[in-house]
Amino acid sequence: EHGSSLLQNGKVLVNGGWNGNNYLNSAELYDPATGTWTTAPSMNIARSQHTSTVLSTGNVLVSGGRNSNIYLNSAELYDPATGTWTTIETMHIARIKHAASVLSNGKVLVSGGHHKNIGYLNGAELYDPKTQKWTNAGNMMTAREDHTSSLLSDGKVLITGGYTNGDTYLNSAELYDPATGTWTVTGNMNTGRWGHGTSVLLNGKVLVNGGRTGNIYLNSAELYDPATGTWATGPSMNIARSEHISTILSTGNVLVSGGYVGTGYINSAELYVYEIETS
What we know:
By secondary structure, the chain is mostly beta strands. The protein is built from no helices and 33 strands. It has a domain at 52-244: Neuraminidase (6 Propeller), CATH 2.120.10.80. The chain has strands at 3-6, 12-15, 27-31, 36-40, 51-54, 60-63, 66-67, 70-71, 75-79, 84-88, 99-102, 108-111, 114-115, 119-120, 123-128, 133-139, 148-151, 157-160, 163-164, 168-169, 173-177, 182-186, 197-200, 206-209, 212-213, 216-217, 221-225, 230-234, 245-248, 254-257, 260-261, 264-265, 269-272.
């Protein structure tokens, strides 16, 4: 429930979260070159279930989340060059378990999530790094939390799955078009899921893997084709997992690591091998 972001200098910024007793404002930097962790300056506000997004400027935008029973609309920026956190304008709506994507124009689309009083959210907002202001980005077709948000090669954003009212695990997907500011429905996934991983492959298709539906942890995977708006069944993972990390590598392969199953957290990893001829 912490944030994790790969910085432009190759280091990884980990921030916030909850340690079982307290909500954290602390941050750390991991250096893959040396395999070491160093303490980074703390955020201004302790938070968990927030988003942590690397901007085109190299700064990191942290937005929303919760601190105990307080749902946050606050946002702050981390500057890797100076190692400082700066509080910026608040979002219009406090939210947790939302999703964020950097658009081709550098703006950040924040979508959905959950509000303490409103419940599941369908509203979205845009953050503009140039003005450091938030503006309304319309409403998704379906309110959802714990969904994923992926920038497609055509500049649109694909929203998949999540969880909503009535213990409903969503298989629905929708598209946000920054050029028109509109939301449209696209094809449904074969399986409703939340806590899944999403990666945009080199051929432009989107690989969705794992997650859970109800108490069932999934090893299934699906491929979304933006050209047709349809889903096809992909190869299943070796291990069912939810709330894992799905990382696209420079080779085009996808590394799936960690996650949770019904018996606890797992540290295993596996590789989806990308083959352009067959994928």
